[in-house]
Structures are given as C-alpha cells and as structure tokens.
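Reply to dn_fold:

You asked what the input looked like. This is it:
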Amino acid sequence: MTQITSDPSAADAAKKFAKRDALVANEKLWQKEWEERKVFETDMPDDTSMTIEELHKKHPKWMGTFPFPYMNGILHLGHAFSVSKVEFAAGWERLKGKRTLFPFGFHVTGMAIKASADKIVREIEMFGPDFAVPKKVDATDDLGDKVADMTVSDAAARNFRGKKSKAAAKFGMHKYQFQVMQSQGMSNAEIAKFVDANYWL
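and this is what came back:
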C-alpha cells in the first residue's frame, strides 16, 4: 500500500507567502471592481444649457498629477510616500462628490531633467562616449564611505532614522549619472542621447 504524503517544502512556502498572496488576491478583486464600475474615470458634464461657471458650481472638479520617477537615481520609499499623498487627496475629493482625475505622469519637472542631462554632458567630457573611467579614479570610493556608514544607532533605531545620506539613498553604490543608467540596462550609445534634455521626455 502506497502512502501519499504532501510536500512539506511546498506547504511551508505556501504558509510563508500566505499574507502576500492574500493581499495580491484582494488587490486584484478590487481592481476588477473599480474597473467594472469605472470608479477612476470621469467625463465633463454634457449640459449645454449652463455656463462654464454654473457647471463648475454644480459639478465641482479636482485634479492632481505626479511626474514619473526619473532615471537620475534609484527608486526609494520617498517616491511611494510622495505619490500616496496625492492619491489620498484624490480619493478624499472623490468622496466629497467632486469629479476627480489623477493622471499619473501627466507632467514632467524640467529642472531635474536638465540637471541630469548636464551631468551626462560633463561625464562624456570627462570619460568619453564609452564612459571609460580611468583606473586611478575609483567610481565609488567617495560614495563608498557614505554607504559603509549606513549603520543605525540605538537612538536612531528608536526614532526610525538612519545615518544614510540623501545622496547615498538616491544613487546607491553609483557615483555618476551614467552608472545609474547602466545599472538599468541601458547601453552607452543610448545613454549618450540623454545629453538632450528633450530626449528624457
């Protein structure tokens, strides 16, 4: 008589990810509900008998937007925190009965793009179009010291604050703009096109 036993490793894996799987299933359930009810879609009122001012008074509106994260640094929790504030505001205004739109990535922030384009220009001047960093220049030594000092003191742990600088959080182990973009799988030829700020758009 053959005894069938379940795979303990599979059972352990299922138990380990049970909370995550429940959250994903719940997320898909509500995404389907929102899509069917078109909760996040809104149209301009089709009433030609009213003036624009009267329409705005009868059907108040609210719009918020948020730019896409750029390739000038790695994604971090600050991105999620910032976008969550706009998302919360949009939901609140929708609950108040306003026609609400939150078109993510509807605009761009020009200064961050221009600054990153200028960095690429300088780095091509320094290292050439192949971004060949001379051996005497350690591309990570300056930032390495900061990254090495990311320990959290007891007092900081109680206050949920670390020693990591903003630069270290943004660039990780990368010192130059081209390194950040290379880490995202971009070729040197593609990176060179970003000297034009308009190319970022």
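The first strand starts at residue 61 and ends at 63.
Hope that clears it up.
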